[in-house]
Amino acid sequence: MILARRQAAAWDSPGRAGLTWLGQAGFWIDTGHHRLLIDPYLSDSLARKYAGRRHDHRRMMPPPITPEALPRPDLVLVTHAHTDHMDPDTLGPLAARCPDLPFVVPAACEAIARERIGAGARLVLVDAGERIEPLPGLRLTVLPAAHETRDTDAQGRHLFLGYAVGFADTILYHSGDCVPFAGLEGLLCDLSPGIVLLPVNGRDAARREAGIPGNFTLEEAVALAQKAGAAVLVPHHFGLFAFNTCEPAAIDRLAAVTDRPAILRPRPGETLHPRQEPDAAGMPLLPGR
C-alpha cells in the first residue's frame, strides 16, 4: 500500500482514510471509521498572550481551518497542557458546540483541562501505561513522554503523554512533545507502529534558558522511527513560530537520502492518504503491523 497526497483536507471527505496536518503538533486523522483530532492549535491565543515580547508567538503560517469551521470529530486527543497543544480558543468552542464529545487528556492536567476546555466537558482522564478502547474498533495505548524531562505530579501521574492509536491493521504513534529517553525505544518496538508522527524542532541551551523546552532533532526522530521499525515518519512541530522551528528544506534533504522510514513532510491542509496502486504522487508506505 502507498501513501499519496491530495490537496483537499481530510475533513472534506469523511470516511476516507487519511491524515491532515493542522500545523505545530496538530492533526486531523480519519481512520475510515473514526475521525480523530490531536493537539489542535488553530487560534492566535499565544500571539495575544506574548504580544510585544521577544518570543511573540506570531504565526508563520495561517491555520488551515478556523475553530468555528472545524467539523465535529469523534474523539479529541490532547498530549499535554502547553497552549499550542491544549488551546482554550480551539478546544473551548469545540466543546461548547459538541457537549458529548470525548476529550482524552492527561489525568495530571485535569484542572487546567477543565479551565481551558470547559468545566462540564466530557474528559477521559488517562496516564502512561493505560490501554483503553475509547470508541468501538479504536485501541489507544498511552505512553509517557519527556518534554526534555519526564515530569509527574504529586500522585506520580505523567504531565506529558504520547498516544499509539490502533485501528484495523494499522498502529499510528503520536509522541506529543518529546525527546529521547530510556525505555522509549523498547515501548515502541513492542507496539510496532507503522506510522510515527514526531516533532523535529530540536532543542538548545538558549531556548531552555528562555523557558522553551525542546523536542527531538530531525536526526533523532529518524533514528527513533528506524529503531521502532516504522515505515512512515511524518515530522511536525516546525514552521509555526520563528524561534522554535526546523527548516523544511532540511527535512526534504534527509527524506531524499532515507529509504526507511519514508519521510513525508506534511503541508497544512493537505491530506496524506492510502492508495492501492502507485502513481507519480505515491510513495511505498503505510503497512499494518
From TrEMBL:
PANTHER family found in the cross-reference section: UPF0173 METAL-DEPENDENT HYDROLASE MJ1163-RELATED
Disordered: where is this region?
265-289
Q: Does the keyword Hydrolase apply?
A: yes
Q: Does the keyword Nucleotide-binding apply?
A: no
Lineage top rank: taxon: Bacteria
Bias (Basic and acidic residues): 267-278
**Which GO molecular function annotation, any one, does this entry have?**
hydrolase activity
Question: Where does the record place the Metallo-beta-lactamase domain?
Answer: 23-237
What this protein is called in its record is Putative Zn-dependent hydrolase of the beta-lactamase fold protein
Q: What keywords would UniProt list here?
A: Hydrolase
